[in-house]
């Protein structure tokens, strides 16, 4: 269990710095270029851990077993993470971090709608608090944030929640590390293939006519320099590779509800780091929104954690 808390702490810190690091290079790398690069590198870093997980389960993957990861990777990386990267370029890093942290509760909603999993009163209360928190953060009556940035963040959050639900069966069968690894690799390869298409003259010309210049002739190596290399490596290797690896390793040593604490602490830590590093000012309405979202997380997390503690106490007394 102690190892689980170490991995949770590592994942929390790395995930809380993700939007900040991406923000510092948002004008240097094409958003799609950064997305396929970091998830391809992250998938390669997860590969040995995925093979170890498969070996421990006595599973040998065949080509047909990889087919589901094509769709899962498309939703998670090609769609969701592209929207997420675009969101970072359109609005403040702290806003993206806070709003995106609500995705575990939307996972519950999709799991109920698509998998028929039960949803409890505490889940509904948590969802209501999360939505109220999101409205306070956005402040639609006195909107000062970029509307496109907010919409992109919420779409990224919802599609990432869908990615989580789509990958649930694969995670149960192979383990979370295997699901993440192969969805990262397939999703990034799909995005690379789409990026190659944007170099075709008719496609590039059409994108430019529509005013979508960033989707025309998407570069593969532009922006790399001695100045940008540390941030690029930090985002790709540390945040995406080590961060997700730590998150899924935590799953092996701690219950899922405990691991979800990563998304409880991120809305607190990320805005503070954005204030210190990027000098992003946090308006009072956003702190109220963060407090409501934390209350929603507590409403969802606390009952199962208390049940686990009571069960552990009973087992200790029985011994």
Report on the architecture of this protein.
The protein has one domain. The longest helix is centred in the last third of the chain and has 35 residues. The protein is built from 15 helices and no strands. It is mainly α and 319 residues long. It is globular and about 70 Å long. Its main location: membrane. Keywords: Membrane, Transmembrane, Transmembrane helix. It is a multi-pass membrane protein. It holds the Pfam family EamA.
What labels describe this entry?
0% strand, mainly alpha, 319 residues, globular
What order do the helices and strands come in, and which of them pair?
Elements: H1 2-16, H2 18-24, H3 31-57, H4 67-90, H5 93-100, H6 103-115, H7 121-138, H8 147-166, H9 168-174, H10 176-197, H11 201-209, H12 229-253, H13 256-259, H14 262-278, H15 284-318
Helix pairs in contact: 1-12, 1-14, 2-5, 2-12, 3-4, 3-10, 3-12, 4-8, 4-10, 5-8, 5-14, 6-8, 7-15, 9-10, 14-15
Specify Rg, calculated over alpha carbons.
Answer: 20 Å
Q: Could you give the order of the helices and strands?
A: HHHHHHHHHHHHHHH
Low-confidence stretches: none
Q: Termini distance? A: 19 Å
Give a quick account of the main beta sheet: strands, pairing sense, barrel closure.
none
- Secondary-structure-derived class: mainly alpha
What portion of the residues fall into strands of 2 or more residues?
under 5%
How many helical elements? 15
* Shape designation: globular
How many strand segments?
Answer: 0
Query: What is the residue-mean pLDDT, rounded to a whole number?
Result: 85
Query: How many structural domains can be distinguished in the coordinates?
Result: 1
Relative helix content: over 70%
